[in-house]
Amino acid sequence: MCHPSVDAQVVGGTIFGSVKDASGANLPRAHITVTNVATGIGRDLETDHEGFYRASNLIPGTYRLSASAQGFATLVKDGVALEVGTEVVADLQLHVGATQERVETTAGVPIIASSSSSLESVVNGTTIRELPLNARDWTALATLEPGVATVRQVGLNANPGVQTEAWEPR
Known about the structure:
The chain has one helix at 125-130, and strands spanning 13-21, 31-36, 42-46, 52-58, 61-68, 74-82, 87-89, 92-94, 102-106, 148-154, 163-169. The chain is mainly beta and 170 residues long. The chain folds into two domains: 13-106, Immunoglobulin-like (Sandwich); 125-169, no CATH class. Strands 3-2-5-6-9 form a five-stranded mixed beta sheet, with no helix packed on it. Strands 1, 4, 7 and 8 form a four-stranded mixed beta sheet that branches. It has a two-stranded antiparallel ribbon with strand order 10-11.
């Protein structure tokens, strides 16, 4: 018997990007620390030979990125928000200086996610608790998102009078 493959549900997110110098040249082997602000748990990474890094399977939350390389001032970027299943691009630019120097920036939420063309959204806990859900049907939350419309279909089961719902993009 052949079983189709099934993708696992995603519980984390990914922060990735590049590290460059002030002229725009990639910095290979730069040291990156990705720290969850709420838990204080950090992950140390190193950029590859082209200056790119990737921190996968991070729990949702706000992160602080710290980047350093020999001959460059340390850069700290605060406020990188990560939600379930998202990929956040956080490119970093280091400036020439002493290793003891520290440059701090605050990240903003990107308006457009340039890393993927898929439409996705996260319904936060506050919305779930405060929204009056008919019969507490959590699947109705999908209709809150842009581009989702409810389509009524007659179910093909033992009880032909039962209707089921499906969602499709508008």
